[in-house]
Amino acid sequence: MDKLADNKICGEAECSHVLSMATALDDFIAPDCRFINIKKGQMVYVYSKLVPEEGAGVFWSGSVYGERYVDQMGIIGYFPATVVKETHKFTEVTVKIPTTGMDFYCV
């Protein structure tokens, strides 16, 4: 799979802590297994934010939680930053780290 970006912003070096919470402004249908489906109104936990290359879209990684689509709960994937509105930031301290092929690996 192609890399979506060369760098990402996280709350710490492992990217395991939630950066922020967001609410979905619109539906997003995942085009491949690197992405997650999001339904309008769902709460999204944001784990990292890709640093966009020139001319590329802005993608964040996160997980959706909600009463519907329970089978997706806990699955982390990418989505366009434009389909969500950040509602709460958990940290202002971030680190910029390089992405690897594993950041975009899926089967």
UniProtKB/TrEMBL annotation:
BP-aspect Gene Ontology terms:
cartilage condensation
Q: Which SUPFAM superfamilies match?
A: SH3-domain (SSF50044)
Keywords from the UniProt entry: SH3 domain
Query: Residue limits of the SH3 domain?
Result: 17-89
* Record has Calcium as a keyword: no
Top-rank taxon of the source lineage equals Eukaryota
PANTHER family documented for this protein: OTORAPLIN (PTHR47146:SF1)
Q: What is this protein called?
A: SH3 domain-containing protein
- What organism is the protein native to? Pleuronectes platessa (European plaice)
